[in-house]
Amino acid sequence: MTIADIVLETRVLCDATSTSLTDATLLRRLNAAYEEVIGKILGMDGMWQFDDSNYSDFPIGVATLVAAQNDYTFDSSHLFIERVEVKDVNGIWHLLSPIDTSEIGEAMEEFCKTDGLPVYYDKKGSSLLLYPAPTAATTTLTSGLRVYYQRTASIFTSGEVTTGTKVPGFASPFHIVLCYKAAIPYCQSYKKDRVALYEKRVADLEKGLLDFYSRRERDERDQITMGGVHAR
Length: 232
Hints:
The chain is of the alpha+beta class. The chain has helices at about 5-15, 25-40, 160-165, 175-190, 195-215, and strands spanning about 60-65, 70-75, 80-85, 95, 95-100, 120-125, 125-130, 145-150, 225, 230. The protein folds into 2 domains: about 5-50 and about 155-225, no CATH class; about 60-150, no CATH class. It is elongated. The model is unreliable at about 220-230 (pLDDT under 50).
């Protein structure tokens, strides 16, 4: 479904017009529904790492390091940090190990206090902390930090609604879930008799959506591990 189709269908579900359910309100509710759906997909456990198909780049961030600085800000749209790498002075990339302050058995001021090639990283709010802080003698500073992450939806803009051609970046059989999710708040105020039906429809669609994404890695063989059988 295109965004034009989604807008039309949502208003039909509400018996609403562009006056009773304005473009701005509808866009806000559709984007909230979109981000919620993408959040559910990202929460699925599987080897296939989902990314909204509307993005034109891979979810990999590259940043320049600063000598003796261990605090780097990352974009709030990076919902999950999957791995962090730094490049040494010889151009070789090194995978950093995640660590939490609760795991550090000494004063933070003393932990990795001698600058060098980073070995660990910690996440604090919107900051990525590297330990030890990099040096120019051990680390390639320019574009020397690489972060792999998962991100939220490529939400709709008002301009894209006007153009009307953009489609949600997840499996097309489930696009209509956005219509039902966005219709529910309106119906809670003006069409209360429809709420339970639409909530049931959302639950059914989301179950199908998550079942679909949980089986995406069909090309992988089932494996027997020390933890038992990993079933697909």
